[in-house]
Amino acid sequence: MKLSRYFSDLRSAYEAELDDLTSDSEGKDVLKKRLAAKRSEIGFLVQMLSYSPEMVAVVFHRAFRFAKPATMQRLLTLQPEALPAWPELAGSVALESWAEPVARKVLAEPGGPAFMTVAACLEFLHAHGFASADALPKDADEDQGSSRDRDDDDAGLSTDDAHDPTDERSLDEAGADWLAEQGFERKE
User: Fold this and answer.
1) Cα-flanking dihedrals φ and ψ of residue 2, to 5°?
2) Fewest 10 Å CB contacts: which of 47, 55, 61, 75?
3) What is the reported pTM?
């Protein structure tokens, strides 16, 4: 199983956001203070739910309890449009009591339920990393199915792909293949 491109990209942005909040210019740990300030600004931050989720998700740093890690690992393989909304994660993820008022404000927004799932996934990824398919419980792998079973055509790269390529070809080779399919001659 591979981390989806969506979460792979967001993971680095989320980690960078946390790193930026962690220490001041003198190197002092100010994460707790800065997170408290961000949480107090949630009314403003909700405007960024869809275009900068990593900047808002940090307000939920250490806010989740993960009862079913295998479910979270499976979610990390999905693209955002395939993710369940927050209410569907009941039993798999719970909020710490201090985060509930912040979550209510986020959930009141049009994209709030989807964002909460993304925030939980980012925090799970930060706290637990991403296990390979071998480390997943058997039932999680069976529920998801193998990526080979879900793919209609895994022969090449496309901007429409919702997952990383399953083969080892480079982007240059895939680009050359695409150009050849469009009628252009191959450069040798």
Assistant:
1) -120, 150
2) 47
3) 0.67
Phi, psi dihedrals of residue 94, rounded to the nearest 5°: -130, 155
Measured CA to CA in angstroms, residue 124 lies from 15, 107, 175 at distances of 12, 19, 34
Does residue 39 contact residue 102 with C-beta atoms inside 8 Å?
Answer: yes
- How crowded is residue 43: how many other Cβ atoms within 10 Å of its Cβ? 8
Q: What is the spatial distance between Cα 187 and Cα 11, in angstroms, rounded to a whole number? A: 36
Q: Give the C-alpha separation, 50 to 59, whole Å.
A: 15
Residue-wise pLDDT tens for the chain (188 aa)? 589 999 999 999 999 999 999 988 888 888 899 999 999 999 999 999 888 999 999 999 999 999 999 999 999 999 999 999 999 998 899 999 999 999 999 999 999 999 999 999 999 999 987 644 333 333 333 344 433 333 333 333 333 343 344 444 566 676 777 677 777 777 66
